[in-house]
């Protein structure tokens, strides 16, 4: 499996080129990444794909010097669960 970034979403793709999960985002003013939605195909739910997309998003934010803001419940929960770990990439509310 690999993760591709098409400048509006991160997509988990398998060896047969099937999209297994995606995290939709927009780049916004103030050097922020606004994550709006995470979706995992029902067949692949519970296999850690959303977590891998989240980790890739955090890596993207760190690499690009951006902050993450979210209306996606999954991402909001992950950021809030470990505030110290993600302080450098969490946007002020």
Automatic annotation (TrEMBL):
<dbReference type="InterPro" id="IPR000182">
    <property type="entry name" value="GNAT_dom"/>
</dbReference>
<dbReference type="GO" id="GO:0016747">
    <property type="term" value="F:acyltransferase activity, transferring groups other than amino-acyl groups"/>
</dbReference>
<dbReference type="InterPro" id="IPR016181">
    <property type="entry name" value="Acyl_CoA_acyltransferase"/>
</dbReference>
<feature type="domain" description="N-acetyltransferase">
    <location>
        <begin position="1"/>
        <end position="93"/>
    </location>
</feature>
<dbReference type="InterPro" id="IPR031165">
    <property type="entry name" value="GNAT_YJDJ"/>
</dbReference>
<dbReference type="Pfam" id="PF14542">
    <property type="entry name" value="Acetyltransf_CG"/>
</dbReference>
<feature type="domain" description="N-acetyltransferase">
    <location>
        <begin position="2"/>
        <end position="91"/>
    </location>
</feature>
<protein>
    <submittedName>
        <fullName>Uncharacterized protein</fullName>
    </submittedName>
</protein>
<dbReference type="InterPro" id="IPR045057">
    <property type="entry name" value="Gcn5-rel_NAT"/>
</dbReference>
